[in-house]
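Section 4.2 – Deliverable D4.2 (structural model, holo form)

The reporting period included a commitment to supply a predicted holo structure for the target in complex with KG4. Inputs used:
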Amino acid sequence: MTLPRILAIETSCDDTSVATLEGFQVRSNVVYTQVLHEQYGGVVPELASRAHMEALVPTVESALKKAGWALKDVDAVAVTQGPGLLGSLLVGHSYAKSLALSIGAPLVNVHHMEAHMLAHFLVEPGIQETAIPGFPYLCLTVSGGHTQLVVVHDWNQFEVLGETQDDAVGEAFDKAAKLLSLAYPGGPVIDRLAQSGQAKFSFAQPQVPALTFSYSGLKTSILRSMQARSKEVPATLTDEVADWCASIQAALIQPLLKGLQEASQQTGIKRIALAGGVSANSHLRQACQTLAAEHNWDLYLPPLSYTTDNAAMVGAAGFFAYQHQRFGSMSSAATARMHD
Ligand code: KG4
Ligand code: ZN
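Output (structure tokens):
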């Protein structure tokens, strides 16, 4: 059986990404990150959609070229329908619909967070050497917009056991980095600086029901700790930035580890996966490896290139839908909020 050739498009936030796949096998995965948002310390929606408009066609061309494909070779067009920034989604979704129509290929609508969780099925010789999880698996889904514990029962069956009651953990990383005057997005910067620091500061941890999270109070708590510290010793924030990063990182990751252990205990599921941008975090990955050894988990860590937003994961979700003939109609529309 020849595998379908899927062109996948992701434009939900500030990355314009296009991938080509044969089934789950990635032939190319081009990610154009819009660096223009750095100067504003966060994503500016209007600028993001404009940048997607400029970048999308060249990104499609680049992904096709890397795979050695022409548009006529494409059997299906998979695209992120939501959730995300509406203006950004609209650019990718409208383009995908027109493309599908013009080449006579079916359209596959993909849920962005489901795509993150299905990235584990991607196969890329040399990079993806880890095993593929069987269903069901427990997925800690952590990104700039989501913090969830999900049982993935099947490719289209996701049970959210618990989630954040306010901010997402990635958002908390970015806000904390801003307090330290670090670059946007703050998660990777905190991760890097934390490597040479000690987690010597502690913050008030919120009291929340099991399997849920809360990150909105952390910013205030960090500020209070910083104020208290400056009274104690005349050290400046910059002198101790690595220690602040290590402390913030530990405080943000700790509830995730606790939640994962509780969820695994409650469900009896020992196939554990991480997904989303924050799953690139080195401390989280290491801590999960330690827990996996302790609790006998089969741990699935996504390759770094499939943690943050990318179109290959949209292709993986798209291939599942393709196999089950779940195609989108030309009247389907991008949506900022989508079912969980
Ligand atoms: O999945 P993603 O690319 O986009 C969304 O769907 O939100 O996640 C982006 C988030 C940002 O908040 C970013 O700071 C965070 O992932 N992130 C990290 C790391 N790399 C990206 N957070 C902590 N450590 C990292 N190494
Ligand atoms: Zn994402």
